[in-house]
Amino acid sequence: MDYVIEMLNIRKEFPGIVANDNINLQVKKGEIHALLGENGAGKSTLMNVLFGLYQPEKGEIKVRGDKANITDPNVANALGIGMVHQHFMLVDTFTVTENIVLGSEPRKVGTVDIRKAEKEVKELSERYGLNVDPKAKIRDISVGMQQRVEILKTLYRGAEILIFDEPTAVLTPQEIKELIEIMQSLVKEGKSIILITHKLKEIMEVCDRCTVIRKGQGIGTVDVSETNPTELASLMVGREVSFSTEKKPAEPKETFLSIKDLRVKDARGVEMVKGLNLEVKAGEIVGIAGVDGNGQSELIEAITGLRKSESGTIQLHEKVITNLTPRKVTQSGVSHIPQDRHKFGLVLDFPIGENMVLQSYYQEPFSKNGVMNFKNIYKKAQELIDEYDVRTPDAYTKARALSGGNQQKAIIGREVDRSPDLIIAAQPTRGLDVGAIEFIHKKLIEERDKGRAVLLLSFELEEIMNLSDRIAVMFDGQIVSQVKPEETNEQHLGLLMAGNKEEKAGGQ
Amino acid sequence: MFSNKTVNILIPIISVVLGLLSGAIIMVAFGYNPVAGYAALWNGAFGDAYFLGETLRQVTPYILSGLAVAFALRTGLLNIGVEGQVFVGWIASVWVGISFELPMIIHLPLAVLAAALAGAFWGFIPGILKAKLGVHEVIVTIMMNYIALYISNSLVRNVLTDGSDQTDKVAKSASLASDWLAGMTYFSRLHWGLLIALAMAFVMWFVLNKTTRGFELRAVGFNQNASNYAGMSVGKNVVLAMVISGAFAGLAGAMEGLGTFEYMSVKSGFTNIGFDGIAVALLGANTAFGVVLAAFLFGTLKIGALNMPTEAGVPTELVEIVIALIIFFVASSYMIRWIILRFKREGK
Amino acid sequence: MFKSRFLLMFSLLLAIGLILGACGSSEDGGEAGGDTNEKEEKEQTSGEGNGDFSVAMVTDVGGVDDKSFNQSAWEGLQAFGEEHGLSKGEGFDYAQSESDADYTTNINRLVRQDYNLIFGIGYLLQPAIEEVAAQYPDTKFSVVDSVAKGDNVASVTFKEHQGSFLAGVAAAKKTKTNKIGFVGGVDGDLINKFEAGYVAGAKSVNPDIDVDVQYAESFAAADKGKLIASNMYSKGIDVIYHASGATGNGVFAQAKDLKKNNPDEDYWVIGVDRDQYEEGAIEDTNVTLTSMVKRVDIAVQDVANQAKQGEFPGGKVLEYGLDDDAISIARTNEEALNEEIIAAVEDWKEKIVNGDVEVPSNRDDLKTYVDSL
């Protein structure tokens, strides 16, 4: 038997629910094995069982053919199982090396032999093409680099089987490309990889085989070479899923949002938006494409009143909204689906029901004479929960307890329900599974068809291509080019996003 | 093994038990009888109506200072300045109490209101500095404590009296003291302020949980970014939270100024009402009802402890260690929560 | 939500109650409540305590080891106990106050434990004594260092200005720099008496002498005492008289620190209330020049005895002074307090006792006195 990992008939219960029910996972040596499932399907639970964080109620685990009893992560480490967490577990103020050796420091007469560790880290980094500076401080390096430090951490501890938990969720397209190369070189060196994901594109690109889980149950394992994204998606969701979002041609009407010569500085005082001009018409979706860090976040914060504009004007219809307070902007008919839903979109410690009125809590019927009317609030919340298919035990559950997709659906319900004239959707589907993505895309198009202006910001080119009626490419604080999706392709967009203006003519 | 609800109930109980246990161990280690010691504590706090009265009297300012800390914490602010706000509230209430001759129905509310306003003002300053300039409230409030202490000493000596170190007693019409309550409790200093404190606990619960403003305050406390995104003015809510917190603290000062002492004297140091308020708020989980119960525990310990040296012969120093240990365990409930959760995980 | 919070708090209350309750009843051997317990205690107190007279005192925040006022009073009570064969807790005892909020509680508790005579040590306890005395007319009270109303209260005061005058004489004689200092506890009538006497005494010896007067605003802040002393000594002052309770410990500490490092320089402290010779000792030398001894112990013992004999001076103000030997200048540091100084002190004492000199006891009188020199 050449399986390095075998998880057989695993069952894991939590009070009230069965998270894993009779799941089988068999990983061959030297393969990249995808673990596919919707958010909340039980992927993370299964991996936590493998990593020793949970003990299964039933079933057995074999590592390299021998039955293993993995009681805690240390046992998993000893068996050569390493986990690259989605949320990095790194100490910001420590160097790369210090973070890597943390917990298993090489000692020399009672002190940590950091020299030796640095040398080892450097060797490992070179061997797998990770290109990490062992002496850099974590806070000074990019998110992509931090992820490589997490990978190095597992390799340093001698991992043979690496579990990647949604590794691309936090990365830019370029970083994703590099990560895929790293995974391929790891496999070449004889490591085995389990990739937890719900991104079909990635599976098709790098994986050898794929195990699908749906609602806690194992659906089966398929060879990636013998399947296609549509089949995988329907296995995962349990029904047919349409990928290319269907939409009618846009019928743009009058210009609704117009931005002229806008200049915005970031928190450090660096100018990030440098004289930007952009128009969005009612009844169209304008997608902003660009590599992260070219001023997109600052642009959206300036429109929504969260950040001060230095100069220029932002106009809604006739009304100038430059530097109004967020509330004034909202009341002018703008809805904002924020990029970071945990930081901006929700008060995680509030019940989901109260989050549903986060923008309107002060208005009747939710509040009268300064006193809240929770009955009306929860009535409204329940309506939105039903309408937008937010899966939650009830409206009183804390927002924190919901999965990312359901949190996002709640935000979208809240923002769309206000019947705004302009919807700003920043990365509306980040980290969500196909089912939720499909739902959200459909909603945005519906709103467009109702004659609303939609400004979409996304780092997923596919999303931009699918949804936009017009694509505005942002580079270095300006819109450098505007194209129609049917007149371009990802390669062309990629070049534009890199600031390559020469290609503009050639592409069209 | 345990549900979250059980954990929440278990933590304060375990804290108190551990505190009492470790206090007992200390007493045994030094050759004193812990049973006698705790019996003395119990008798000193509840032994008869007098002690019960004194305990409730001590509980009164603790409820208010605990509410003050808790209210600020719910909005994400650490108000270390409750101590100073108690001082200004105290002096303001006494000032009004000794300066006017008015019918009680006007005089008493006026004196109480003066205390609340003075405390509110003392909270406003760190609040506005935080909102406008981003100065951390902890630093400002610590400084404001000293300013309050020395200003009130100077006022007592130079303005309210002629060089004396204690003001006159407040007029009868401004006093919270009650002959009826005192009579019932063998001349304890129990006063009507307890009702004000309990009413304020209700006010805090109502404001935070039922009003639109409270919704904003809590939202700001949990997530300033999201509150800003939702159109709430974070700065305004920060100032407001400090003002309300200060008003509660000022009322705690009025309890001392109009109830317990009925005068203000030159103080050589802090009263600790405000600092103990921090522990009261933490133990009470920052909820109004929790604060009332935690204040009750602290008042009991404070008054009961005085009886330990005379009745059980435990030296004062040791009593202080024992009380400090109990408070330590109670305040470090975070640690106990952590341990329980660890067991919980292993149990699974 | 509400329910869980309620449950949480309820169980908290229950826990406290249960545990404390368990402690209470286990001592009673199952009998309910703490009352029985207390009665037993009372019986013990009155039963075994010699005769049926018991006496207790309440300290201010300084405590009975403040090396000053409270300690002196406690020594008086102990002497009283020894005289009548009593022991601590049975016949005499003290209660220590942690803050000014505790005064009334402590006094009340002692009343409720059936002590016959209760001393409030220090003027800070005057309002509390007065208040409780009015509530319990059958119990005897005494306040030291202040005057309290009530027929069942004996007020014990001292003519500290007289003793301070002599301390001023000694300081003026001893100083080489003609700069001396005064550290007061809390600025008020009582300590102003010390200040006035001290300044008057010093100016009587040398009208041009420089007296630096500072207040620490506390009787229990040794750190402030140390700071003030450090300032004074660095300004060239070589004798400091402190009338500041435990704050004075800081003055001693600073003088000793300086003396250790510069053995040839002079850093003198004049103690207060009791002979503070011990506090000034370092190795083979001593920084305590003398002390203005206020025999609180004599006064306390005296009042206790009078009460025991049924001659309690209720409603009276007792003044203890130089003529009663309840005020004196300590002569323990024979090396420092030389013949010449002693002669001068004796000389002035004579004049005071005879009435030739009227020692000022407040700042106004002091001004008149100094102007008349």
TrEMBL record, chain B:
One annotated GO molecular function: transmembrane transporter activity
Family annotation (InterPro entries): ABC_transp_permease
Bilayer topology term: Multi-pass membrane protein
Major subcellular location class: membrane
Subcellular location(s) of the protein: Cell membrane
Keyword entries, A-Z: Cell membrane, Membrane, Transmembrane, Transmembrane helix
Residue intervals passing through the bilayer: 7-29, 59-80, 86-103, 110-129, 135-156, 190-208, 238-261, 273-298, 318-340
Gene Ontology cellular-component terms listed: plasma membrane
A Pfam cross-reference name: BPD_transp_2
Protein's name in the database: ABC transporter permease
